[in-house]
Structures are given as structure tokens and as C-alpha cells.
Sequence to fold (308 residues):
Amino acid sequence: FATFEGSGETVHPDWAVAPFFFPQHLAITPYPNGNANYELPSLFGSQLGTEWSLAPGTPNPIIPAPPSGHMSDPDIVWNPESGDMWMYYRQAADRNIVWLVRSGDGIHWSSPVLAVSAPNHEIISPSVVRRGPGDWWMWSVNGGREGCSAETSWLEVRRSSNGINWDAPAVIELAHDGLYPWHVEVQWIPSRSEFWALYNAKEPGSCTTPALFLAASGNGTSWSPIRRPIVARGAIPDFADIVYRSTFSYDPVADDLRLWVSGARFDRKWIWSTFLIRKHRASLLDKTAVDGAPLAFPPPAAELVDWP
Fold:
């Protein structure tokens, strides 16, 4: 990725389709060596989803540096009713604030509008789904006052009729094997009439999340997780220590997923990367490798003391 500061290190990918210069889009943030000062939502485009670049005239980044805190967790949604892309992102300062900007071409963006706000660290990784007219959903993770160093975290969901004004959150259970959700990406899968949630899970007291999981839900509130990780720490050298916030697209004809997975390794400093991984859905449903067996992951080389 041609990130604005030149490192190419990225985290927080989020995928969507929109009829701009490129048909496919990834919202993503630079994160060179874990420096949050460069963590600003950017938008890249692609024809096939394998090579990503800036469309002509696209600002880089989309969101400028804030006067305080940092920007993270961009999430993009195409709204066919208004004919534009909606980008939600989180400002982490003395509070967690989720802002919304909109664009009809990926180049010109509106002024930010406040969507939701809560004390630190109660809105992490907002993931927004527009299922139809007047039917908007937002899932996010509540890390409590201690954030990722806490013993637990939990998933919450909000509802909206317009994508701007949101109801109070409802708590959702999505913990298993002593692991808790940390960053989440939710999509509605029309061909299967269910929501899918892709999430990296944290261990108690740790910020270095060891694995990425998938869960399904028919109603958006009761979730059935697949215990077998999609990607685990150490699966590739670049993910030697962390598997982080990721996104996906689903092809119902081929019945497979393309996943853009972010993660990191520690080599005297944190080095962040995003990889494309392809998985057939049936391979994710094979529970024989984990049913009845406790999940275990190799320890990280270093502990993350802050998180993107």
C-alpha cells in the first residue's frame, strides 16, 4: 500500500464495493512501527482485490490528523439510497468518538458528523451493516476502562433507521475458550440469510491478540462461533506475534472467502502487514481438529503495550 508516510505498514482493513474509479475498496490505516500518530483512515481501490492503489485524485489520507488522540478502525458502507460511500471511523482521545464522512466519488468527502460517543475504551472497532432501507446495524467491542489490558471484553450492537442516529447498545455474548472479542468485522450474507462476524480474540490481560475467528448469526444477536481459528499467531512469519483486525468478501458461487488479514511481528520494533488469504467455506466448518481440545497458541516475542 502506498501509505502517505511511505512505510507501507497497515492495519484495520475494511472491504466494500462501490461504483467509483475502482469497483473494490479497502479502508485502512497506516501503522509504521506501531506509531499511532500516522494512524489515519485511507482509501485504496482495486479491480480484482489483489493489487491496491489510490484512484486518481483520492486524498491520502482521507482523514487529517486530529488535534488530539488518533484515528482508527475505519469501516466503509455503500448506501444505494443516497448513492454514496459512508466511512465511519473512531477517534481515540479522552473519549471514544465514532465519526461519519460521506463521498459520492471517493475523492470529495463531507465534513464529519458525530455518530456515537462513549468513555474510553467502550467503542472499539465499529462495524456497520446496512441490511436494507431503514435497517442499519453497528457492532463494536467494549473493552471497559482498562482496554486490552483488561481480563475481558464484550461485543455490543446498536440499531439505527438512518445510519446516523443510533440506539443504546445491547450486550452480546461472543466469548469462548478463555478468549474475548477485540476487533470485529460484520457482514450480512444475503445468499445464506445470516450475519458473519470476523474477529480477532484477546487473552485476559493481553493486547497481542493470537488468532482470528469466524462466527455466524441469523438474528445479529445470538452468535455461533467456529472454534477453529482462521489464522493463528505464527501461521506466517509476518504474523509471528499478532493477528489483528481483518475483513473479507464472500463469493456465493465459488463458496469461498477472500480475507484481508492484518497482523504484526516483533523484531526490535513492531512491523505491521496486511495479507490476502483465500479460504473455502467448507474448510472453516471442519470442527474435528478442535472439538474437545483446548486451544493453545505460541507466546508472542513481546507484549504490545498499546494498541491500534
Q: What stands out?
A: The mean pLDDT is 95. The chain has one helix and 18 strands. The first helix runs from residue 281 to 284. The helical segments are 281-284.
